[in-house]
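CO-FOLDING WORKSHEET

Operator: S.A.
Ligand of interest: pyridoxal-5'-phosphate
Run index: 230
Mode: holo prediction, single chain
Checklist:
[x] sequence pasted
[x] SMILES validated
[ ] output reviewed
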Amino acid sequence: MTTDSQSIERATERLATIQDAIDRSARLTGRRGADVRLIAISKTQEADAIAPLIAVGQRAFGENRVQEAQAKWPALREAHPDIELHLVGQLQSNKAADAVALFDTIHSLDRASLLTALARAMDAAGRRVPCYIQVNIGDEAQKGGCAIAQTSALIADARAADVPVVGLMCVPPAEVEAAPYFALLAKIAREEGLERLSMGMSGDYETAIMLGATDVRVGTALFGERGGAA
Ligand SMILES: *Cc1c(COP(=O)(O)O)cnc(C)c1O
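OUTPUT RECEIVED:
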């Protein structure tokens, strides 16, 4: 794996820039940067691109496909058992057991059928994986996420099934100002008594933090542009 000095330097620089921005946004709202978790979204990135970030201390990573994560992470994780893996993409029910075995947190619980599959997988594995309920905050037909009106019921069902729900997650509509959607997600979380908010990507993570994000999911700003479809 390439952890040559040039890639180490670049990883150090990008991480420091983002950490500074996180600190600044957190301080503006009376929080500390250390209370915001930076999840490095490594989808489509090869191990060679990920290794420098691990080398400079990044420990939380996110992937959007179970199979891709299964192929990449067991080897990368071997030397660093303290790495946390987050699933941030849509999850098919037939992959629930694989997801429970591999990931430390699931950000995309969005429907009753997936809840049933996850509860069963967690029972079988004897392992409870913290989940975020993904909310379809812009009510977009093509997007994953639970309808706002159904969020409360899904949270109650998850609690009844002993699936730990730690917060809410959203991906706001593209090409429009994200702030109102972040504020709406924060309001729903408050009403539900949930503490964590997974929101904000490369283009809007500072805004998300000012509106209460506890987890930001940053890909491009850490790795550079992704090649091909993501
Ligand atoms: C790809 C992805 C991100 C990261 O997006 P960037 O704009 O590259 O920072 C965050 N969240 C989810 C769900 C993603 O699929």
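REVIEW:
The longest helix spans residues 5-28.
The longest strand covers residues 37-41.
[x] output reviewed
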